[in-house]
Amino acid sequence: MRLDVxxxxxxxGEVVEAARAAESAGAGxxxxxELHRSAPVVAxxxxxxxxxxxxxxxxxxxxxxSAMLTALTAADLxxxxxxxxxxxxxxxxxRLNQDWHGVEFAKPVARMRDSVAIIRAVEAGGDPIVHExxxxxxxxxxxxxxxxxRPRIPIYLAAVGPAMLRLTAQIADxxxxxxxxxxxxxRDQVRPVLGSRKIDIVASACCSVDAxxxxxxxxxxxxxxxxxxxxxxxxxxxxxxxxxxxxMAGAALRAGRPADSLGDLIxxxxxxxxxxxxxPAECVARLKQYDGLADGIKLSPPSYGLDADEVRAAQHGLxxxxxxxx
Length: 326
Known about the structure:
It holds the Pfam family Bac_luciferase. It comes from Paractinoplanes durhamensis. Keywords: Membrane, Oxidoreductase, Transmembrane, Transmembrane helix. This is Luciferase-like protein. By secondary structure, the chain is of the alpha/beta class. It contains 13 helices and 12 strands. Strands 1, 2, 3, 4, 5, 8, 9, 10, 11 and 12 form a 10-stranded parallel beta sheet that branches. Strands 6-7 form a two-stranded antiparallel ribbon. Strand 4, helix 3 and strand 5 form a beta-alpha-beta unit. Helix 1 runs parallel beside helix 13 and helix 3 packs across helix 5. The termini are close together.
C-alpha cells in the first residue's frame, strides 16, 4: 500500500520543504488541502520544488471555481509537474459554498457530474465546447494553444455519502476519503458501493507517531475532538459507541471552548478508532489494517490546538514512519 502525505508548514516554503522530505522518504503523493490556503497554489509550489513525488489537490473545491478554470488550472499544474498531477475535487458543504463563496450548492451530485464532464471536455479540446446541465458551458472559437503534458489528468473525488460514492465509481479515476476513515468504514460502507471498477482508493488519517504512545495519542485527540463537536458526525460516533463523548464535546463547544481544544474529552480508545496514533510499531500495525482495502493512505500530522513546534515534531515522526515503510 502506498503512503501519501499531506505536508504541513507555517509558510508555503515550509510546506515545500516537508514535501521534499516526503519525496526523499518515498511517499507516493503530496496532497494539498483547501481551507486556509488555495490548494492549487500550494500544489504549484510543491510541483516546482520537487521532482518525482506525485502532486494532488486533496481537495480543491469543485463549485467555488468555474469548471473551465479548474480544467485550465489542472492542465497548468500537470505541465508544471511534468505529468505528476492529480486533480482532487470535493463539493464542500452547503454553508461553505453559499455563505463563504457565494455559489450555488443545489443538486451537488449532478453538479459534480457536470463539473467533471466540462473539465474532460476542456481537456479534450475541440471547438465548440458545449455541455448543458446543472452546470453548463458554451465555448466557441477557443482552443488551448499549448501542448498538454498528458492526454488525461487523473480526477479524484472526495465522497462520503452513497450517492457521491456511486458517482465516483462511475466517472472518477480515484477516491479520497474524509480525514476520519477507519478500516471498518472502508470495508463495510465504501468498498461495497465503489464496486469492482478499478480506481485508486485513497484513505485518509491523522497520523501521530511518538516513542511515548500517550503523547502521540494526545496530539491526535484534538483532531477527533473537533469532529466530535460537529453535529453532523454524531450518528457516526454514536454507532461506534461514543455518543456520550460527542454529547460532552458539543456541550463544551456551546459553552465557549474552541473546537480545536477538546482533546481532553476524547478517550484513547476513540483516538485509536479514528486516527493512526501511537509508537512506531503501533502505527505500523494500524496501517496494516488498511491492506487490501485501500491503494494508498494520505497521512497528515495533527495540528489542531498545537503550536507550530509540536506540529513539526509530529510531522517529523510521520515522515520517519513513511521512510521506514518505503
